[in-house]
């Protein structure tokens, strides 16, 4: 079964902040609002995909960096 909640409850706030930061970096803060479920809503789906794609890249980079530092 798919998990929609992060394992660490404190991670939710950090993930929301990361979404907002990446949106600002991409210049797509117009028309973006947080809904009651704390997901970014945008009129254009492709922008949401760009935010999600960039967020995934950053999370992978952070994980790889963490693994390298632990070695």
UniProtKB/TrEMBL annotation:
The protein's name in its UniProt record: Small, acid-soluble spore protein, alpha/beta type
InterPro entries the UniProt entry points to: SASP_alpha/beta-type, SASP_sf_alpha/beta
GO biological process, one term: DNA topological change
Function comment: SASP are bound to spore DNA. They are double-stranded DNA-binding proteins that cause DNA to change to an a-like conformation. They protect the DNA backbone from chemical and enzymatic cleavage and are thus involved in dormant spore's high resistance to UV light.
Record GO terms (molecular function): double-stranded DNA binding
